[in-house]
UniProtKB/TrEMBL annotation:
<feature type="domain" description="Ig-like">
    <location>
        <begin position="146"/>
        <end position="235"/>
    </location>
</feature>
<dbReference type="Pfam" id="PF13927">
    <property type="entry name" value="Ig_3"/>
</dbReference>
<dbReference type="InterPro" id="IPR003599">
    <property type="entry name" value="Ig_sub"/>
</dbReference>
<dbReference type="InterPro" id="IPR036179">
    <property type="entry name" value="Ig-like_dom_sf"/>
</dbReference>
<dbReference type="InterPro" id="IPR042836">
    <property type="entry name" value="SIG15"/>
</dbReference>
<dbReference type="InterPro" id="IPR013106">
    <property type="entry name" value="Ig_V-set"/>
</dbReference>
<feature type="transmembrane region" description="Helical">
    <location>
        <begin position="236"/>
        <end position="257"/>
    </location>
</feature>
<dbReference type="InterPro" id="IPR007110">
    <property type="entry name" value="Ig-like_dom"/>
</dbReference>
<dbReference type="GO" id="GO:0032956">
    <property type="term" value="P:regulation of actin cytoskeleton organization"/>
</dbReference>
<protein>
    <submittedName>
        <fullName>Sialic acid-binding Ig-like lectin 15</fullName>
    </submittedName>
</protein>
<keyword id="KW-0812">Transmembrane</keyword>
<feature type="region of interest" description="Disordered">
    <location>
        <begin position="271"/>
        <end position="295"/>
    </location>
</feature>
<dbReference type="GO" id="GO:2001204">
    <property type="term" value="P:regulation of osteoclast development"/>
</dbReference>
<keyword id="KW-0732">Signal</keyword>
<dbReference type="InterPro" id="IPR013783">
    <property type="entry name" value="Ig-like_fold"/>
</dbReference>
<dbReference type="GO" id="GO:0005886">
    <property type="term" value="C:plasma membrane"/>
</dbReference>
<dbReference type="Pfam" id="PF07686">
    <property type="entry name" value="V-set"/>
</dbReference>
Length: 295
């Protein structure tokens, strides 16, 4: 008699711990940020109540944009199969599964992402048919550091509607950056500035330009900023991005080192070395026309 109770208790506790410890759950990161051109991994993992002894079919689907869109990647495998994951690694081109769905890993790898790949994605798993499923949304953000691609004067002849010369600043960045014009000589009201997108990550802005004026075009988004002056002069262009800052710090270090070394030698040599530095600094400045940028 006591043996029977014991047995029932065991079964009961197994059922209770089994169903309490593992329930349907799916984990994704809400947003995945990846620089343009790199590979993105959209992480996704799941657990389900029957996973201790589940030997049925696991169907993995990845959807883009809409939660009910047709999947752009889909694969099915039985949980007892020891076979390679060849069906799940896709064509090996743009998308493939990174992990093993039998271990609850549904993560997706996307190669060499473009800004156009940004947006919502949906990770979905179905067990033994479509009525047992879980689906979660994750977002991909493909980032582009803000930078100025060109800053130049456009003659009226190249734009039939315009009779004045305009200074045109073309930039890129994602998330979409803001463009600000700075002028020493006049206050710019918003109706004097014309801004328009060129492509997903590029846009240009222009202002009326009168010979002799000095303008600075500045571009910024959450990743940083950059600016450029027109006409170009011997001022160092300050790139606010982390890359630019590191290069700047490194070159300052080099100059200090050169100075220290020079000081150790005679004062005459030091003067020459200093002159050499100045010359080198100017050399790394942007040439007239203002199309190069110190990075
Ligand atoms: C597949 O089976 C193994 C071993 O039986 C189990 O550990 C795993 O959780 C199962 N996977 C799924 C997704 O049910
Ligand atoms: C140029 O002018 C024409 C006629 O006024 C107008 O339809 C067109 O949209 C203008 N183009 C631009 C780029 O402003």
């Amino acid at each position: 008699m006591w043996q029977q109770t014991d047995c029932v208790c065991l079964i009961l506790s197994a059922i209770i711990t089994g169903s309490l410890s593992v329930s349907w759950d799916m984990k994704v990161s809400p947003v995945v940020s990846v620089p343009r051109g790199e590979d993105a991994v959209l992480g996704c993992s799941f657990t389900h109540p029957r996973q201790q002894d589940y030997s049925g079919l696991i169907t993995v689907k990845w959807l883009a944009r809409e939660s009910n869109a047709p999947p752009f990647l889909m694969c099915s495998l039985r949980n007892y199969s020891k076979e390679e994951l060849k069906d799940c690694s896709g064509s090996g081109l743009k998308h493939s599964l990174k992990g093993d769905p039998r271990q609850g890993d549904l993560s997706l790898i996307m190669r060499k992402v473009h800004v156009a790949d940004s947006g919502p994605y949906f990770c979905r798993v179905e067990l033994d048919g479509v009525w047992q499923y879980e689906q979660k949304e994750t977002r991909l953000l493909v980032t582009v550091n803000p930078q100025i691609l060109s800053l130049s004067v456009v003659e009226p002849s190249s734009d039939p509607n315009s009779t004045t010369r305009r200074l045109k600043c073309e930039v890129e960045g994602n998330p979409p950056p803001t463009i600000t014009w700075l002028s020493d000589s006049r206050h710019l009201s918003t109706d004097q500035v014309f801004t328009s997108p060129v492509s997903l990550e590029r846009l240009f802005s222009s202002v009326v330009y009168v010979e002799g004026e000095v303008f600075t075009c500045r571009v910024e988004n959450m990743l940083g900023g950059a600016e450029r002056r027109y006409p170009a002069d011997n001022t160092l262009i300050i790139t606010l991005s982390v890359d630019g800052l590191i290069v700047l710090l490194m070159s300052t270090g080099v100059i200090h080192y050169t100075r220290k070394k020079a000081r150790a030698e005679s004062s005459h040599v030091y003067e020459n070395a200093a002159a050499g530095e100045n010359h080198r600094l100017r050399g790394s400045d942007r040439p007239a026309g203002g199309d190069a940028e110190l990075q």
